[in-house]
Amino acid sequence: MDELKNDRYLRALLRQPVDMTPVWMMRQAGRYLPEYQATRAEAGDFMSLCRNADLACEVTLQPLRRFPLDAAILFSDILTIPDAMGLGLYFEQGEGPRFERPLSSFDDITKLPIPDPEQELGYVMNAVRTIRKNLHGEVPLIGFSGSPWTLATYMVEGGSSKSFTKIKKLMYAEPKTLHLLLAKLADSVTLYLNAQIRAGAQAVMIFDTWGGVLTGNDYREFSLAYMHKIIDGLQRENEGRRVPVTLFTKGGGQWLEAMAQTGCDALGLDWSTDIADARRRVGNQVALQGNMDPSLLYAQPQRIEREVAEILAGFGDGDGHVFNLGHGIHQDVPPENAGVLVEAVHRLSRPYHL
Amino acid sequence: MDELKNDRYLRALLRQPVDMTPVWMMRQAGRYLPEYQATRAEAGDFMSLCRNADLACEVTLQPLRRFPLDAAILFSDILTIPDAMGLGLYFEQGEGPRFERPLSSFDDITKLPIPDPEQELGYVMNAVRTIRKNLHGEVPLIGFSGSPWTLATYMVEGGSSKSFTKIKKLMYAEPKTLHLLLAKLADSVTLYLNAQIRAGAQAVMIFDTWGGVLTGNDYREFSLAYMHKIIDGLQRENEGRRVPVTLFTKGGGQWLEAMAQTGCDALGLDWSTDIADARRRVGNQVALQGNMDPSLLYAQPQRIEREVAEILAGFGDGDGHVFNLGHGIHQDVPPENAGVLVEAVHRLSRPYHL
Hints:
The structure is a homodimer.
Chain A: H1 8-13, H2 34-43, H3 46-51, H4 53-66, E1 72-73, H5 80-87, E2 89-92, E3 96-99, H6 106-111, H7 122-135, E4 141-146, H8 148-157, H9 165-173, H10 175-199, E5 203-208, H11 216-233, E6 237-238, E7 241-242, E8 245-249, H12 256-260, E9 266-268, H13 275-282, E10 287-289, H14 301-315, E11 321-322, H15 335-349
Parallel strand pairs in A: 1-4, 4-5, 5-8, 8-9, 9-10, 10-11
Antiparallel strand pairs in A: 2-3, 6-7
Helix pairs in contact in A: 2-4, 4-7, 8-10, 9-10, 10-11, 13-14, 14-15
């Protein structure tokens, strides 16, 4: 493997000194880039793009050719595991992910297999290996998975949801059944992330997109406990380096203290949390990643810069900040505004790292 | 006017002693009740029901006939003001509210009239007077409005939204234009709530359904500041009694301290906030209303009771708690489960008020 040339992202996650704040963007390989749209059209549908290691590699690298980003992230979907369990993931035009065979009974759950990441999810590992090779050590590669709770919501609801009626009915009526599902998912995610690490992912992130729809008690019992279990089972060293783990619960700003106790290295913040408050609350335990509202990329360059400056000032002096958006980049932002963001983070953050 | 027989709700909002914790449910007059569905079918569409004082009164009183609730809430919609401004509110089947003529330019905003609540919104005042009369002093009547920010999101987006692209573009590109709109809405809401109070509303609530999609800074500038301005302009005494004001920002759990500084009497909490934490943070300044996840009404009675007990214990001893759901009751819950909730709150809260 090529030696890593830019390790700013990995160092910041471990709260080690850096020359400037590293930056990447959730969904940086995505529809806002015309070159992504071209590759996706070539692949056919979204899952075909994920399954083709060369094309998945191509779209992973596209944003890095445009912007001096400090990390690449595996191009894949958070729902690969339920798909590998046999639920049949597909995407309706403009509708988000759907499952052909959502879970509807205890029996469905007991029968779910734990996927072998090198078999049913081998296409993901091929993508990781291909991307890692083609990065030539320029920046580190991030692997990821959805959280057990988030995967379970899609598996039970059959797709996206607004009120999460089905899974909450299950949670309140048959908590043991839901725990069985979550335990299987936690085991599957652990195997999956460890396989990504062995295939070359230099950091991993767990996306808990829907943890924020829970009460605090339910979040700890049904989401956080399983992410904690995953972190306990992860291989934390590879190629002689620590493999940092970032935990991101959208809407989880009230639970940062509990999240920081899981043994993760960093917390992802959405934009509803003030990063200065977050640092006061957990800053000495973990690094923080975030947290500009992705809608700011619709604004004029000066407005974007002002927001970058405010977030950098909010985090303040010292190490342990990875700049990012608070959620994925929107598909209709002008790509040049992403460039404004990346340049501004690098330039404006230097004084905080003297 | 009849003398008020049960003032538990008003007393709790003012943190005065009560014999048991008062309880009402957001959207308690709604589709989960077959008698509501019958009256709505009689009225025709949703807005015709709102505009018919006798039928609006009928649905307001329906849940009180079933359950010993401690307050009634005006049956109306949060979007009556933009409708009165000429935007043309309508409801698509299963799609939520839409406007025929959403705002699309600075010119549209400068031309918006400030509705006279006794004219264009006279049907709401008629409903308030009719309900108040027919309540015969059994419980107090709550009036309400959407917050300026929440109204603005619908007016600019044209309806419900997932990513709030249009209003955020406006906010970041033309903040002064948005401030002009919000100032007009704040004036309109102030007039509207004061008219409701004069018509007989004994408490008012401001629903900020979408404040939680903002950053903390933007929330303070574009939502909270205007709610503060409204509260400053409200008539706080009527019929020799204080008229309490409750502020509810869904997803605003991180900003309770700032919300408590607005001069409101109470904060509504959604279920993502731990009520014990909320009380530690603001408990001596304001009362708290909330905050059971409405999905718990899908559960078995014992599970509902357990949750009620936990929320009551979380708030703890003393006064200043109004029990409620953290958001509106879902349309498909069994009505008898709402009865379980109300009975459990009254029974289990007595020991906290000895």
